[in-house]
Design brief:
single chain, alpha/beta, 6-stranded parallel β-sheet, 10 helices, 6 strands, 45% helix
């Protein structure tokens, strides 16, 4: 399977980093701080990976535009309080190391900000693993295809030779729009039935399962 791809692009939150619950709780806690209706777990998780304004429109629709900076500040307070406890999913380091050893280019396409992703990469010791990254504050957010198309252009890889790995329908829809292949992970923000409704090569419950599919003779 790996022979089909020259570039593997990973989402970050919910795909490599086990951060879905921390983000959802920060979304909920920020809403409570501002006296807004608190989104349930499903709603708070579903918006992970979207751009800021679209995520807020779905998760806290009663938030007035002029209060977005206030909400964002409260979100950061609650997220930073949990950030130090975040870990990578089991098998993440091994998968990345073997892909690099096989000569595959690695990249990240994420709804995080540039600053947030860099902080996360440094904390995880992965800041030298990826040939390129795209974040939500650099270009159009998911599911718009811009992140993938900019990455493939920068790294001079055809979209058809690119595999997107993500845990949300936003990731899979972005890949389809960019004419790239995709696989979904059910360990993150979106459940199996939502992922199954999107076009993908396969769905996996863990990075270890993905590893075995990509590199069965490892």
């Amino acid at each position: 399977m790996l022979d089909r791809f020259d570039l593997v692009v990973f989402d970050w939150d919910g795909t490599l980093s086990d951060s879905t619950a921390a983000i959802a709780r920060a979304i909920q806690d920020a809403a409570a701080d501002l006296g807004l209706p608190v989104p349930d777990d499903t709603t708070a998780s579903h918006v992970i990976g979207l751009g800021l304004h679209e995520a807020l429109a779905r998760a806290v629709p009663s938030l007035a535009p002029e209060r977005i900076p206030e909400y964002s500040e409260r979100y950061r307070v609650h997220y930073f309080a949990r950030e130090a406890q975040l870990v990578l999913f089991p098998g993440a380091r091994e998968l990345l190391a073997e892909l690099r050893a096989a000569g595959v280019l690695l990249a990240i396409a994420t709804g995080k900000s540039q600053r947030g992703l860099q902080r996360a990469l440094v904390s995880a010791g992965l800041d030298r693993e990826f040939a390129a990254t795209r974040c939500a504050d650099q270009t159009h957010p998911k599911p718009h295809p811009a992140m993938l198309l900019e990455l493939t252009n920068e790294l001079m890889v055809a979209p058809e030779r690119t595999l997107m790995v993500g845990d949300t329908t936003h990731d899979l829809q972005m890949a389809e729009a960019a004419h790239a292949a995709a696989v979904g992970l059910t360990q993150g923000a979106h459940p199996y039935d939502q992922l199954a409704a999107c076009r993908s090569l396969a769905l996996f419950d863990s990075l270890s399962q993905l590893h075995g599919w990509l590199m069965p003779n490892r």
